[in-house]
UniProtKB/TrEMBL annotation:
Residue stretches making up the EAL domain: 24-278
Organism per entry: Deinococcus aquaticus
Record-given protein name: EAL domain-containing protein
Length: 292
């Protein structure tokens, strides 16, 4: 009967949901275990000066290869880590490695070099996080000058004054703060006024619109000008084409990051890239690393 087949369908859906649920649980257990064993890796993507082609900083991006499923994208394991309260462990892993790579890179370049790490909204709101960062800085007093923190607008909506305070304290210790994925959140321009930020990263979605969308171009130009007037460094992320690069140059954007320059690469590949970079005389044509 119809009722019977409806019931069967409901049962099948139930079973498949239960299976998915079990799969997620197992995936989460493996993530926890791999984190405990330090089996996640971190990739690095360069951020370069649009005018001189010089290497300015790098962004640290977490990578996880699950033994059963293979590479799992951050868009999947970051939410899982959040749900399972594994972000402190993940951030710690990324922080330690980013710091080490920043110091090695600084040595290679003969100047101070920062590596940026991404923070989740929840971390910025937690007192525990602030304490952990302070403790880290006590043990590594130099670290502040080698690190940058990326926060999204999303992290600000619940408690702008609180997060502003936290970031202000961290900034006073020497850390650099970047507002990530700018343009995708709900923030008003007032955020820029209230938040202590050194850098603003224009989201990839705006950069993609630069070639064909006059409106996007206008908005991006306005954001670049505003940031410059506020003395905030502007970075365009997700730059994939030479045309986009040209547009950004016309707008006087400060720095760029994206596949056109380099994909995020392993530590070994990163250090090789830096070696190559030091050999290049800085100039507008030095934007691409010589060896890839
Ligand atoms: P995000 O911070 O905005 O990082 C930039 C993302 O854009 C990275 O994706 C990067 O690989 C990608 N990307 C860079 N250039 C291009 C380009 O030219 N074209 C395209 N299509 N994509 C480009 P990924 O590594 O998959 O990370 C995604 C997001 O996951 C990050 O976005 C960040 O929010 C989060 N995430 C990654 N690692 C961490 C971490 O260690 N901690 C936290 N809290 N979040 C992380
Ligand atoms: Mg980021
Ligand atoms: Mg970003
Ligand atoms: Mg983004």
């Amino acid at each position: 009967s119809a009722a019977q087949s409806g019931l069967n369908r409901a049962l099948i859906i139930d079973q498949s949901r239960a299976r998915q649920h079990t799969e997620q649980l197992r995936l989460g257990q493996r993530l926890r275990r791999d984190l405990q064993r330090g089996r996640l890796s971190v990739h690095y993507q360069p951020v370069v000066d649009l005018r001189t082609g010089e290497l300015r900083s790098a962004e640290a991006l977490a990578r996880w290869t699950d033994e059963e499923r293979g590479p799992v994208p951050p868009a999947e394991f970051i939410p899982l880590a959040l749900e399972l309260n594994l972000m402190p462990a993940l951030t710690r892993l990324v922080l330690l490695r980013a710091y080490r790579v920043a110091r090695t890179t600084s040595d290679l370049l003969g100047r101070n070099f920062r590596v940026a790490l991404n923070l989740s909204a929840a971390e910025l709101h937690s007192e525990d996080f602030r304490e952990r960062v302070s403790r880290f800085m006590t043990h590594h007093p130099q670290a502040a000058h080698y690190l940058e923190l990326e926060v999204t607008e999303q992290a600000l909506i619940h408690d702008l004054p609180g997060v502003s305070h936290t970031l202000g304290v961290l900034q006073a210790q020497g850390l650099s703060v970047a507002l990530d994925d700018f343009g995708t959140g709900y923030s008003s321009l007032a955020v820029l006024q209230q938040l202590p930020v050194n850098k603003l990263k224009i989201d990839r979605s705006f950069v993609q619109g630069l070639e064909h969308d006059a409106r996007q171009r206008l908005i991006t130009t306005a954001v670049v000008n505003l940031a410059r007037q506020l003395n905030i460094t502007v970075v365009a992320e997700g730059v994939e084409t030479a045309r986009q690069l040209q547009r950004l140059r016309e707008m006087n954007c400060d720095q760029v990051q994206g596949y056109l320059i380099s994909r995020p690469v392993s530590t070994r590949q990163w250090l090789e890239q830096v070696h190559g970079w030091t050999a290049v005389p800085a100039g507008p044509n030095a934007l691409l690393p010589p060896r890839r």
